[in-house]
Amino acid sequence: MEWVNETLVREFVFLGFSSLAGLQQLLFAVFLLVYLFTLGTNAIIISTIVLDRALHTPMYFFLAVLSCFETCYTFIIVPKMLVDLLVQKKTISFLGCAIQMFSFLFLGCSHSFLLAAMGYDRYVAICDPLHYTVLMGYGMCLGLVAAACACGFTVSLVTTSLVFHLPFHSSNQLHHFFCDISPVLKLASHHSRLSQLVIFMLGVFALIIPLLLILVSYIRIISAILKIPSSVGRYKAFSTCASHLIVVTVHYGCASFIYLRPKSNYSSSQDALISVSYTILTPLFNPMIYSLRNKEFKSALRRAMVQTSYPVN
């Protein structure tokens, strides 16, 4: 990677929590507890889905993949952030910054397309239940996850390459707590309108396209639900989609605020605050929203706990 050696900037200094110097130990304790709880929650969800055959359905397969994405996403950012809260020199190498940006973009973009796949799964389950097992077979589920990962990989590779091929000759002080796109671009000595436009269009592709696919799925879902004669049937059908809708709203709300704004509206303090929510809190709440609202999952979790406490010889 010769382009790393051509730049004068060898490392970046994180300044994301520099204004909260007196609270950094408290933030470390709070973020550590949240991180450990997130890891534990996702581990419980994944293991319960794997162990209980009643949960071997497309919806729970996608939920397990979502939990994996959430776990890996926090692993890319949070451990480094926790270390930086305890040390004076909060730095990351140029190559390390590029790897971190590529990894979190890959997982974040794949997450967006996975939500679209989950929307399609709910569409088939409600609008074509008789053919659900055929249309959403194991091969189809694997294909949708592979397509989501392929889209995420492409967007992250192109974006990271465009950003880190720019010259960095001046400041290396990053007003953030990880290598996000806008803070790193601010440090570039210059960048063309074309590269800025391409990066913006990739953000649109990774956010708007999946969101449009989700909207199409839910327009058809709502149309099908309104045709159900009983109010109990309508409520039951809609309740299967409520968790997905909550997660979609939180994910796209935070991501759109960060990545789909004009550059003139960029604010490092606002972005750092929003980034805390989607890098620390969202990975905690998303799996819990799906699992705690779901009676079938809670029953499976109780069965798994009983089997673990009283194993059958």
Short structural description:
This protein has 11 helices and 3 strands. With 313 residues, the protein is an all-alpha fold.
Q: How does this structure look, described?
A:
By secondary structure, this protein is an all-alpha fold. The protein has eleven helices and three strands; from the N terminus they run αβααβαααβααααα. The chain has helices at residues 2-5, 24-51, 58-84, 94-127, 132-135, 138-164, 181-187, 193-226, 231-259, 268-292, 295-309, and strands spanning 11-14, 91-93, 173-174. Strands 2-1-3 form a three-stranded mixed beta sheet. Helix 4 (94-127) runs parallel beside helix 8. It is globular. Residues 1-5 have low confidence and may be disordered.
- SSE ordering: HEHHEHHHEHHHHH
Cα gyration radius (Å):
21 Å
Task: Report the β-strand fraction as a percent range.
Answer: under 5%
User: Which structural class do the helices and strands define?
Assistant: mainly alpha
Overall average pLDDT: 84
Number of strands: 3
What spatial order of strands do you see in the largest sheet?
2-1-3
Low-confidence stretches: 1-5
Describe the sheet with the most strands: 3 strands, mixed
Distance between the termini: 56 Å
Helical percentage: over 70%
> Number of DSSP helices?
11
